Amino acid sequence: MGNAVATDNQLVEIAAKVNQRLRITDDDARWLWKNASDADLCSLAGVVRSRFHAPDACTYMVMRIINYTNVCVAQCDYCAFYKLPGADGGYVLSHEDVFAKLDELRALGGDLAAFNGGFNPQLPLSYYCDLFASIRARYGDSIEFYALTIAEFLYLADHAKLSYGETAERLKAAGVRWITGGGSEILTEDFRARHSKFKYTVDEYFFAQRAIVEAGLKTTATMVIGFDETLDERIEHLERTRKFQDETGGLASFLCWTFKPYFTQIGGIEITTSEYLRHLALSRIYLDNIPRIRTSVLTQNERALDGLRFGADDFDLPIEDEVTQKAGATISLDFERILTYARQLGYAPVYRHVANASQ
Ligand code: SF4
């Protein structure tokens, strides 16, 4: 009974902070994760969401991830996608391959592409600049593209022996507007030492992202959960993200998705959708300085839309992503069924077209 009273008091104190637009602490986040009910998390996430969005509002985009190469030297143990240089099955897409994928995207009603490949030592900076400039020349503003993830950007800068600032400027001159926050997974040094020791440190990640913002490019925050990360590691990731946003204001959105373990070196089982949704809510409550919180149809299918009740306001309808599909993700092109589910939940989804949105 005494414990129940203490628990209620803590919830009341945290709720009061959220209602007064005060920030929750790391300890508050830890407490919420361990003790708050789903209903409490939904309610608090709804308070923060309502500062940015009407209760029934949500947006979406039809997009494809273009995996331009699967050749990679990083050897992350959670990856089922990569091939080492010289191994059978390694590939690099030509401009024509990429154009065909973009044309198919447009035919399906989409207008956003996100490039994601590997740390391929055979690809010079000119491959990227030529590819992105040719896309901008061919499609103008009718398509937008996320050019690289931060992780690939780090490798590209190292490989080209250029500073992060110079690399960002070269890409910008080639027509690039976005470098997204992919390759973050869990942003703690311990996590990276355990699973991806060739994929750059957390400090390097944020150093590069700051250079990207300072070059006038847009960027986003991402997170992947469901490996072996601890609660403290999840909260450290959120803490570093919130701090970076305080300092730069450069993060347009936060997208979290779940690890798909199939055919990976570390294997394991997927976390439940319920755990994912609770984390989404916690992220919305904690990241009070990021207006757009995105839920992952790619890894949760239409159940991702339950995330709208847990604080999210935006989602992609993907048509392809080889990286997660290789590890077990399934994609449906029945967009209407997914959108109908959003409507059944009480939301009015609106397409966020790239031509009239800043993403
Ligand atoms: S996750 Fe990315 S960086 Fe890591 S091995 Fe796979 S392709 Fe390479």
From TrEMBL:
<keyword id="KW-0004">4Fe-4S</keyword>
<feature type="binding site">
    <location>
        <position position="79"/>
    </location>
    <ligand>
        <name>[4Fe-4S] cluster</name>
    </ligand>
</feature>
<feature type="domain" description="Radical SAM core">
    <location>
        <begin position="58"/>
        <end position="292"/>
    </location>
</feature>
<keyword id="KW-0479">Metal-binding</keyword>
<protein>
    <submittedName>
        <fullName>Radical SAM protein</fullName>
    </submittedName>
</protein>
<dbReference type="InterPro" id="IPR013785">
    <property type="entry name" value="Aldolase_TIM"/>
</dbReference>
<feature type="binding site">
    <location>
        <position position="185"/>
    </location>
    <ligand>
        <name>S-adenosyl-L-methionine</name>
    </ligand>
</feature>
<dbReference type="InterPro" id="IPR007197">
    <property type="entry name" value="rSAM"/>
</dbReference>
<dbReference type="GO" id="GO:0044689">
    <property type="term" value="F:7,8-didemethyl-8-hydroxy-5-deazariboflavin synthase activity"/>
</dbReference>
<keyword id="KW-0949">S-adenosyl-L-methionine</keyword>
<dbReference type="Pfam" id="PF19288">
    <property type="entry name" value="CofH_C"/>
</dbReference>
<keyword id="KW-0408">Iron</keyword>
<feature type="binding site">
    <location>
        <position position="255"/>
    </location>
    <ligand>
        <name>S-adenosyl-L-methionine</name>
    </ligand>
</feature>
<dbReference type="GO" id="GO:0051539">
    <property type="term" value="F:4 iron, 4 sulfur cluster binding"/>
</dbReference>
<dbReference type="InterPro" id="IPR045567">
    <property type="entry name" value="CofH/MnqC-like_C"/>
</dbReference>
<keyword id="KW-0411">Iron-sulfur</keyword>
<dbReference type="InterPro" id="IPR034405">
    <property type="entry name" value="F420"/>
</dbReference>
<dbReference type="Pfam" id="PF04055">
    <property type="entry name" value="Radical_SAM"/>
</dbReference>
<dbReference type="GO" id="GO:0046872">
    <property type="term" value="F:metal ion binding"/>
</dbReference>
<dbReference type="InterPro" id="IPR058240">
    <property type="entry name" value="rSAM_sf"/>
</dbReference>
<feature type="binding site">
    <location>
        <position position="72"/>
    </location>
    <ligand>
        <name>[4Fe-4S] cluster</name>
    </ligand>
</feature>
<feature type="binding site">
    <location>
        <position position="296"/>
    </location>
    <ligand>
        <name>(3R)-3-methyl-D-ornithine</name>
    </ligand>
</feature>
<feature type="binding site">
    <location>
        <position position="76"/>
    </location>
    <ligand>
        <name>[4Fe-4S] cluster</name>
    </ligand>
</feature>
